[in-house]
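Budget justification note: compute hours in this period were largely spent on complex prediction jobs such as the one shown. Inputs:
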Amino acid sequence: MRLPSFNYLEPITLTDALNLMEEYHGRAQPLAGGTELLPRMKLGLTHPTYLMSLKEIHELKGIKSNKNELYIGGMTSLREIFLSTLLQQKFLAISEAAGSVAAPPLRNMGTIAGNLCQDTRCFFYNQSYFWRRGLKPCFKAGGNVCYAVPGSKKCFSVYQGDLAPALIAFNAKVRIEKKGSSRIIPIEELFSGKGEKPIVIADDELLTQVIVPIPEGIYGSSYRKFRLRNALDYPLVSAAAFLAIDSEKKVKSVKVVLGAAGPAPVIVKEAEDILKGKKVEESAINEIAEAAYKRAQMVDNLGLPASYRKKMVRVFTKRAIENAFNSIK
Amino acid sequence: MKGMKKELITLRVNNEDYEIFTYPNKTLLEVLREDLMLTGTKEGCSEGACGTCTVLMDGKPIRSCLMLAVEAQGKDITTIEGLSEDDELHPIQKNFIEQGAIQCGFCTPGMILTAKALLDENPRPTEDDIKVAISGNVCRCTGYAKIVKAIKESSK
Ligand SMILES: Cc1cc2nc3c(=O)[nH]c(=O)nc-3n(C[C@H](O)[C@H](O)[C@H](O)COP(=O)(O)OP(=O)(O)OC[C@H]3O[C@@H](n4cnc5c(N)ncnc54)[C@H](O)[C@@H]3O)c2cc1C
Ligand code: SF4
Ligand code: FES
Ligand code: FES
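Corresponding output:
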């Protein structure tokens, strides 16, 4: 499969990149590792006029930290995030999520910014031009039908990024920059919740950094991912859990986030009410799993039937919470 | 697109420098196969999912079908053609043959390069290390047991 035509830009500083984005009026699409964008371009799903590679911008690479916060540059590879001992010790769920993406060669190439900004997916959309040619365009392709949910008025494509749920469980934020300005938002605000256009980031903006507050006290975390093959596959359901406890093992705070359960990561808001101030017991975990099950929005548009994936929400939510608890040393 | 211009790019492949006049939308895979005639690198899926197009970039396995050739400038690229010395096959290649780890051979260049990167980083990998390392490479005929064995033999 060939790539469509485009013009290529290669800034070597962030300032140059932001200038180019302004100069080309949002028509310069960022190219990070390319492992998500280039397949979509080959399928003819998107046709950028300009591709702007960020690979030479070294200031966007690497992991730093101070007493309060961890900083991950947008162009840091998933391999580096997975292998970082700091992350393995203090942010296990994030490391596990990075280590679960695709397969090792794709983690050498793929970056955290590209992972967060990836598009939603659907069996009826992520297909070749030849395959799609037989059908009228669906909502996501600019048309007005949905093949996954016939008769519906919107798109149900699924956000299958692995990093976002784990990062949200840690209350992480992202820095978004454009020429002359910079803003920081919680990662959940990066998502519109709309399958048609899931990522809320303007055409002239770049995601430059991920900022994770370093939790205090005793805590653990975990990311569990359901897929058919243990490599290469996107999540069919996933769950990230963060759990902080006091010296009596009572829960001080808890956050549970689902992946592949709708067009955006899903925060299981009930978790805090159910567990806070209590010990981590099976009945409470089951209750959270039930709340997660109710929140997950699934339709028949990925590798397995929606009904089955939805049942797996309970299983993986429980596993994430149990593993988070067991990871507390 | 009107106006897409060819560029002169320089690639370092198997310790040799090549100058190629090509379009920015050419992948590294296409340039290796079509301009440099290094057809040992295979095109399977073309979308990152099979591993037949694996080459080493600065010693690490990457998908050449998802890397633009222009982006590969300034890096050290190793393809399967770069492994043997004169007519002598690389020990990993010999072990693949001896262990019967090859049937049609389509996955083999990617498997061997992935194995080389693993062994360069970790000369004594466990069986699980090997399985994880080749988890992104699909073989449709040999099955994985003999491939894992061939890599294990190469670590001795
Ligand atoms: C076979 C296969 C399996 C995969 N499995 C998984 C999986 O299990 N889980 C998973 O999460 N992903 C998976 N992926 C998708 C992809 O590999 C990862 O999500 C990867 O992290 C994407 O990062 P990238 O740097 O390659 O992004 P790119 O492809 O370069 O970019 C992705 C998108 O983000 C935008 N973008 C990139 N950087 C920025 C920035 N700094 N600011 C603003 N926008 C930006 C791009 O314009 C593009 O729209 C898989 C891909 C393949 C081919
Ligand atoms: S969920 Fe419906 S509208 Fe959205 S991509 Fe799939 S078929 Fe298209
Ligand atoms: S051809 Fe590149 S991964 Fe299949
Ligand atoms: S030997 Fe045929 S695909 Fe592996």
